[in-house]
Design brief:
- With 313 residues, this protein is an alpha/beta fold.
- The protein has 3 domains: 119 residues, Ribonuclease Inhibitor (Leucine-rich repeat, LRR (right-handed beta-alpha superhelix), Alpha-Beta Horseshoe), CATH 3.80.10.10; 121 residues, no CATH class; 56 residues, no CATH class.
- Helix content is 29%, strand content 24%.
- Strands 1, 2, 4, 5, 7, 9 and 11 form a 7-stranded mixed sheet that branches.
- A hairpin with a 2-residue loop joins strand 4 and strand 5.
- Helix 9 runs antiparallel to helix 10.
- Pfam families: LRR_5.
- InterPro entries: LRR_5, LRR_dom_sf, Surface_bspA-like.
- This is Leucine-rich repeat domain-containing protein.
């Protein structure tokens, strides 16, 4: 592969790449015996043929515009040890869908992921109180994004930050524009502050989401909080369960999206009443969801067994 390197202080910086056809790139860990510790400014700028890049464990820095305009780049996993991402490093990577951030990340520059409209799956390995490093991304986006926080104790918090839109409506009489916000996303983004992620505040906003966001999004928000109950209080848990219990099509949604664990959780919590159960069973049988039908039948036999008729002799 056509890499260009610069040697500084006994470390190698990847300064450029001149390939034109490779869709998958493997950056070497060493160059002429020196560890490759940085991807330099504009190193892969506008390489639209690249779909995926593998970085070595030796990388510590990704400098400004390093992968900007790589419009077909789809997935990026940053190795443990990366501490710095420069300004606009992944600018306009419009097909980037998922990225992992290591716990070593200290600084993320302005607009690092600006215009990455498909980036909806973010994983951050972090300590409690340090979750706000993803603010740089969330501040640059208004589309729905799922962020999974991975903590040292093995627990996770999987949160949906909903979409929102801003609009300006002219007020003729006042000779000014009124600023309107659609969707709850701006409120949810405010749950990330200088002291980290405020899970309690996130849970308190759920009633707004039920009135402002898509039904499937709200359903998934509730499912995620129940499956990954980081700092989930009993009152918040009850509100999520009550909401799911009020939606007759939740089991169908979970079957269609292959979320068996979530369906099992609802069964464990006895959320499915008899009418919802019968509807889900019929749907599963009609659509070949045999794995889920077995679960539902077991639940039905446990909680709604058939009652044998008694006859007077």
């Amino acid at each position: 592969m056509a890499f260009e390197f610069k040697i500084e202080n006994e470390e190698a910086l990847l300064a450029g790449y001149s390939g034109e056809t490779d869709e998958v790139i493997f950056v070497p860990e060493r160059y002429e015996g020196y560890p490759v510790t940085a991807v330099g400014d504009h190193a892969f700028y506008q390489h639209k043929e690249i779909h995926r890049i593998h970085l070595p464990e030796s990388i510590r820095q990704i400098q400004a515009y390093a992968f900007a305009e790589c419009r077909f780049l789809e997935q990026m996993e940053l190795p443990e040890g990366v501490t710095f991402i420069g300004d606009y490093a992944f600018y306009n990577c419009i097909r980037l869908k998922r990225i992992n951030f290591p716990s070593t990340l200290d600084q993320m520059g302005y607009g690092s992921f600006k215009n990455d409209t498909e980036l909806t799956d973010i994983h951050l390995f972090t300590a409690p109180g340090d979750e706000n490093s993803v603010n740089t991304i969330l501040d640059d986006t208004n589309h729905e994004t799922t962020v999974t926080f991975h903590y040292p104790d093995g627990s996770c918090g999987k949160l949906i930050f909903t979409e929102f839109y801003l609009d300006e409506v002219p007020n003729i009489e006042a000779r000014q524009f009124n600023h309107l916000t659609y969707g709850s996303g701006s409120m949810y983004r405010n749950c990330l502050g200088a002291s980290g992620m405020d899970y309690r505040k996130y849970d308190e906003l759920f009633s707004f989401a039920t009135h402002m966001d898509e039904l499937s999004t709200v359903c998934q928000m509730a499912v995620n909080r129940l499956l990954y109950p980081r700092e989930l209080g009993q009152e918040a848990k009850d509100q999520y369960l009550d909401h799911l219990a009020s939606l007759p099509d939740v089991p169908i949604y979970l079957m269609d999206t292959e979320q068996r664990e979530a369906l099992e959780l609802l069964m464990q919590e006895r959320v499915l009443d008899k009418d919802i159960l019968e509807k889900a069973l019929q749907y599963g049988q009609n659509h070949g969801k045999s794995e889920y039908v077995s679960l539902l039948i077991h639940y039905k036999n446990q909680w709604y067994p058939a009652v044998e008729k008694e006859y007077d002799l």
